[in-house]
Design goal:
Elements (H helix, E strand, L loop, with lengths): L1 E4 L2 E4 L3 H6 L2 H20 L7 H5 L2 H14 L12 H19 L3 H9 L1 H6 L5 H29 L8 H29 L2 H17 L12 H8 L2 H13 L9 H22 L6
Helix pairs in contact: 2-8, 4-5, 5-8, 5-9, 5-12, 8-9, 8-13, 9-10, 9-12, 9-13, 12-13
């Protein structure tokens, strides 16, 4: 089947197939679009970079007040680690969660400005739109890692400075921020209003944080809470961060399983978010 296009004849049966079923070209094109979306999102920081520093108030309070008090109370079994050493990775995970969980509100603003409509009619795959925003959330979360490391250094936390461990922390922070920002995007696609989104976001953050091993070990939890902790992605983020970040920190599940759990959660949420993305304009 041929169709005239100017002075050329295009084979409509074969031409699209060559593009569609070239897996290498498709993947490279997808990656390129993901980075373009991420770059556009990161550029927004130029207009309001103070956001990165104002979010440092909460981890500072947790570490300087809560951590300093409970490190003097040996009621929480943390093994060979001091309580501050045990808690510091959990506070980093909390900071990443708080940065990412409210990221979905940006799609509601973009809908009101008409940007989402333009993106949806573009040839950009929905998965690239979701992953681009997720990657930019990961970049934003890196600043929280720097802030928590600085606070931990001041409080004499026994940090690991091994280059491979630092690389591991960077990967965990980016993957986790991407995961929770995608979860946030799903919420935004469902509720569609800023007021409801903020309410649900605030309700979800505390259960995710407390139903994890961020500030106390899973062993001391009641059985019903242990079940929730084991299906909570934040648990695996904290477990990986504790292993990479602290000298003497040991993974309960194994680093490989931690990454597997985080990446699997990210893939599932990305598929759901890509499917729901158009709903935000309906």
């Amino acid at each position: 089947m041929y169709q005239e296009h100017g002075a050329q004849h295009i084979d409509l049966d074969n031409y699209p197939v060559a593009i569609k079923y070239n897996p290498i070209k498709w993947v490279l094109n997808l990656i390129n679009k993901i980075f373009v979306i991420a770059e556009l999102e990161v550029r927004k920081l130029k207009h309001d970079p103070t956001e990165l520093f104002t979010r440092a108030a909460q981890p500072a309070l947790w570490m300087l007040v809560f951590g300093e008090v409970f490190t003097r109370v040996r009621a929480i079994p943390t093994g060979s680690l001091t309580y501050l050493d045990f808690m510091a990775p959990g506070i980093l995970a909390q900071s990443v969660l708080f940065v990412a969980i409210f990221y979905g509100i940006s799609i509601i603003w973009e809908r009101d400005l008409g940007i989402v409509h333009k993106l949806l009619v573009s040839p950009t795959p929905r998965s690239a739109l979701v992953l681009g925003k997720a990657l930019s959330a990961g970049v934003r979360a890196i600043s929280q890692a720097v802030i928590v490391f600085f606070l931990s250094l001041l409080l004499k936390v026994d940090l690991s400075w091994d280059p491979l461990n630092l690389l591991g922390i960077l990967l965990v922070v980016i993957i986790s921020a991407s995961l929770f920002s995608t979860f946030s995007l799903i919420i935004a696609c469902i509720v569609k209003t800023r007021e409801r989104f903020m309410g649900i976001g605030q309700v979800l953050t505390m259960p995710l944080f407390f139903a994890s091993n961020a500030i106390y070990p899973i062993e001391i939890m009641p059985e019903w809470l242990k079940v929730l902790a084991h299906i909570n992605p934040l648990t695996y983020e904290v477990d990986a961060l504790r292993t990479f970040m602290i000298n003497g920190g040991q993974s309960m599940y194994g680093i490989g399983f931690d990454f597997f759990a985080l990446i699997l959660s990210m893939v599932i949420l990305t598929l759901i978010a890509a499917r729901l993305y158009p709903n935000v304009v309906r």
